[in-house]
Automatic annotation (TrEMBL):
Coiled-coil ranges per UniProt: 90-117
Keywords (A to Z) from UniProt: Calcium, Coiled coil, Metal-binding, Repeat
Protein known as: EF-hand domain-containing protein D1 isoform X2
A GO term for molecular function: calcium ion sensor activity
Gene: EFHD1
Amino acid sequence: MELKLMMEKLGAPQTHLGLKSMIKEVDEDFDGKLSFREFLLIFHKAAAGELQEDSGLMALAKLSEIDVALEGVKGAKDFFEAKVQALNCASKFEAELKAEQDERKQAEEKRRLRQAAFRELKAAFST
């Protein structure tokens, strides 16, 4: 819903199916949602030329470009400073995401060990 509203506010409204295909194109963890990292991946793929020209993601990426002749140098400076700040935040978010993933892996491993220990105890009492 947030993506839908954002696209509407940017002047590039999308259908429900269009939004789903946009999410699917960058959804690395297959949860059907866009994380901040996946959102940034849109712009990375656009810069690398990996997006289809007629896709909603390409429309979103193009909406984030700036025309210096139209905006002037000051507008471009503000635009790129905001981009740099967003990239700096992205690296912090990536570190947080990695930490969360590591915590989940550790919790899953602990759960597996507890289950294995329980099975051993169950087998000992069953015989």
